[in-house]
Sequence to fold (434 residues):
Amino acid sequence: MAGRQRIIVAKPGLDGHDRGAKVVARALRDAGHEVIYTGLRRTPEQIVRGAMDEDAAFIGLSSLSGAHGHLFPKVCELLRAAGMNDIVVFGGGIIPEVDRAALYQAGVRAIFGPGTSTAEIIEFIDQASARSCGVGASEDWHWQGM
Amino acid sequence: MALVRAKIGIGKGCDVLDRRALAKELSAIEDGLLEAESAQGLIIAITGAPGVGKSCLIDALLHQWAPSQRIAILAVDPSSPISGGALLGDRIRMTALDDEERKDSIYLRSIATRSSSGSTPYIVSDLSSHLLARGFDVVIIETVGAGQAEIRCAAMAELIVVVEGPSRGDGVQAEKAGLLELADLVVVNKCDLAGADVVANQLSISLDLDIEPPTVLKVSALKGDGIEHLAKTILALKQRTTSEKARIRERIMMANERRFLAAIDLDSAIDSIQLGQATIEEIMERSR
Fold:
């Protein structure tokens, strides 16, 4: 493993289902990372401020409500505006295939849908830690799966 | 686009801090890459068993204290002794962090215990003094959910507030030695639930046998009952003189643990013992 990371796991917007987010948080914990779980119904501003105060290296966003197209890019924009260009953003939940290109374009580096193994998410964290792929990086790399 | 304000203390006539820079400094101190600055000031430990409502109570207090006080919270949760990872969940309850009027006077940092033992890792002592040096009026340490013997917070906090709740065992629990003896104040939270009166009475009767009995206050962090009074009481609190010996004891134990963990890479020591390449005696010898 590429070392311990501090990772925010957050649920942006009006979405009350956090089973998936908790499973991911737990898997990252068991992989040796320090996971800060923010709870439900957070605004992008609250999530970015949390990442700032906690000195997180990653933000994982979970959305099942269909608002990912607005909320995920908003988090990326706020991070860049605050100069937090090195933070890596990834997402999960119910994200239709047709929406994904726009999210990658906005700076999201991985999208994990239903059925993803937790091992894959852990592998993404390790690989992303080793390259500079924060929201402000010029590189347009994104995770292609294992 | 609404910018995330990256400053602490806006419009308060005091030093304005860069939140991100502060967060990076705390990380560097935690990783042993930066020496903490030292300063005097009020450090309050809020401790008690898991689930008694420490986070919720701290949030209710923040609504009383901020923005007139600048407050930093170090919220400690346990690291896994197996994977080394941690799930830090204390931010969930902190609604004061989202309050427009208060959020620029509050800084909360989640801390994992990492290799340290007990309910308050020694690094919290360094982080607390650094935060005071950066201009915070008060540092609140929220310990890991603590049992009767977990009193390490006495090594670093000036005041110890022990939080209790209803339905936590029979009256004999109130008679047992340990954490309660060090409390400068005892708070029975969840007083909106049945059984809180009984617990508060049992604690009062038991503690009244002490030389300097601490006050027992009943509150409900959820409903707000008794919170205003509690907020004032804590800031006017005096340390119990009877806890001096225990505080020195914990400082010695903390210094010993700090020295040991600086001398030994605990993870590789564990690996080498597990693989039969070293014994505990050899590890102890190496740490000298």
